[in-house]
């Protein structure tokens, strides 16, 4: 069965030609799919015979809501979706003044092994397909009724470890006959896969690249993020510099503040020094405690921020949303896995 949801409109046109249908149907099918229909029968303006043909050759595998948690504090919604093969992934809807944002997953689990992250505890099960990534946006929109204007690839998984799928996904959500979400409304977060950062730079997309840094020195970063043993802090910053030079887009550096591990003044000074080579701003994140990990949130976020600012660094502190609903980083999937 063909995974039509992952197809571009051009590929759909080729498929329809094979099925003996006129090419112009591709645009109709594409827009229906990108509205979040659950079956071909919902495609009202298509001839019945065509809908039947599509049903015979193609498979739609919309996810089902396994759990849904709505924050009473700020309206954040966390979805645990069950995929067609039984695996579960998470999506979070956040409501900001600048628009509704979905945080989506790109893999079932993750193989990067960051010690503070719940998503990686049981490793990676598999990559998602472009259609499964798209479905998270579509069905969050359908279920919540909130029109989505921004997407962040900061859910479960490492986007650059599923590179081709993510590139296809970006092309799909960007399409004028679909969600039509501009690249400037999309952020992609990576743990720092250097070759893939270079590869992404080649596309010169206007999206925001976020790099999970979490420490400015190799000793600390290698302790927190095994990926640092393959790509050192110096190599990551060099790649960020090349990325900036090629795309003109400043990097957003994510830095989750961990008590007594990465929150010293010396580390702020070193971070500021490193940032001189690769322009960008720092986004400080309060650590979300993960049951399986002994790491605690830092109490020095403000001091760290001030210290960075004293060096002229632009710093934002991420506002915590959905604190009452396990809204961060693979925690709901873990919980469900433990309970199953
Ligand atoms: N694989 C991508 C996207 C993952 S999650 C990446 O590494 O960037 C998005 C961000 O949340 C990353 O910066 C990640 O390091 C951070 N994060 C993961 N678990 C966290 C936790 N328990 N507390 C705070 N931030 C966390």
Could you list some keywords that capture this structure?
binds S-adenosyl-L-homocysteine, 340 residues, ten-stranded mixed β-sheet, alpha/beta, globular
Give your account of this protein's structure:
- The chain is 34% helix and 20% strand.
- The protein has 11 helices and 12 strands.
- A 10-stranded mixed beta sheet has the order 1-2-3-4-7-8-9-10-11-12. A two-stranded antiparallel ribbon has the order 5-6.
- Strand 8, helix 6 and strand 9 form a beta-alpha-beta unit.
Gist of the model:
The chain is of the alpha/beta class.
Tell me the Rg in angstroms: 21 Å
Distance between the termini: 30 Å
Largest sheet, strands/sense/barrel: 10 strands, mixed
**Low-confidence runs (pLDDT<50, min 5 residues)?**
none
Could you give the order of the helices and strands? HHHEEEEEEHEHEHEHHEHEHEH
Numbering strands along the chain, what is their spatial order in the largest sheet?
Answer: 1-2-3-4-7-8-9-10-11-12
Helices, by number, come to 11
The shape, in one word, is: globular
The percent range for helix content is: 25-40%
Would you spell out the secondary-structure blueprint of this structure?
Elements: H1 9-18, H2 25-33, H3 48-57, E1 64-70, E2 77-82, E3 88-96, E4 99-103, E5 107-109, E6 124-127, H4 130-144, E7 148-153, H5 163-174, E8 186-190, H6 194-202, E9 208-212, H7 218-224, H8 233-247, E10 251-257, H9 265-275, E11 280-286, H10 301-310, E12 315-317, H11 331-339
Parallel strand pairs: 4-7, 7-8, 8-9, 9-10, 10-11, 11-12
Antiparallel strand pairs: 1-2, 2-3, 3-4, 5-6
The protein binds S-adenosyl-L-homocysteine.
């Amino acid at each position: 069965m063909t995974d039509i949801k992952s197809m571009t409109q051009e590929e759909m046109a080729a498929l329809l030609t094979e099925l003996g249908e006129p090419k112009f149907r591709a645009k109709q099918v594409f827009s229906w799919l990108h509205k979040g229909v659950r079956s071909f029968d919902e495609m009202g303006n298509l001839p019945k015979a065509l809908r039947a043909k599509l049903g015979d050759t193609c498979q739609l595998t919309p996810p089902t809501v396994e759990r849904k948690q709505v924050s009473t504090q700020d309206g954040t919604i966390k979805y645990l979706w069950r995929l067609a093969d039984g695996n579960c992934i998470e999506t979070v809807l956040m409501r900001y003044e600048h628009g509704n944002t979905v945080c989506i997953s790109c893999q079932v689990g993750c193989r990067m092994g960051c010690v503070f992250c719940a998503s990686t505890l049981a490793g990676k099960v598999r990559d998602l397909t472009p259609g499964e990534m798209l479905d998270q946006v579509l069905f969050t929109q359908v279920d919540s009724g909130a029109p989505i204007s921004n997407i962040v690839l900061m859910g479960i998984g490492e986007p650059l470890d599923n590179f081709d799928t993510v590139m296809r996904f970006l092309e799909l959500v960007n399409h004028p006959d679909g969600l039509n979400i501009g690249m400037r409304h999309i952020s992609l977060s990576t743990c720092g896969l250097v070759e893939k950062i270079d590869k992404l730079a080649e596309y010169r997309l206007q999206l925001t690249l976020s790099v999970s840094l979490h420490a400015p020195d190799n000793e600390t970063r290698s302790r927190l993020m095994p990926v640092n043993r393959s790509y050192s802090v110096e190599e990551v910053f060099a790649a960020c510099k090349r990325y900036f030079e090629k795309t003109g887009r400043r990097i957003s550096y994510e830095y989750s503040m961990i008590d007594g591990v990465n929150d010293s003044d010396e580390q702020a000074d070193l971070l500021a020094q490193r940032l001189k080579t690769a322009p960008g701003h720092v986004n400080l994140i309060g650590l979300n405690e993960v049951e399986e990990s002994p790491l605690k949130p830092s109490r020095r976020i403000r001091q760290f921020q001030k210290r960075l600012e004293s060096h002229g660094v632009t710093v934002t502190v991420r506002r915590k949303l959905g604190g009452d609903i396990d809204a961060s980083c693979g925690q709901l999937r873990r919980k469900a896995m433990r309970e199953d």
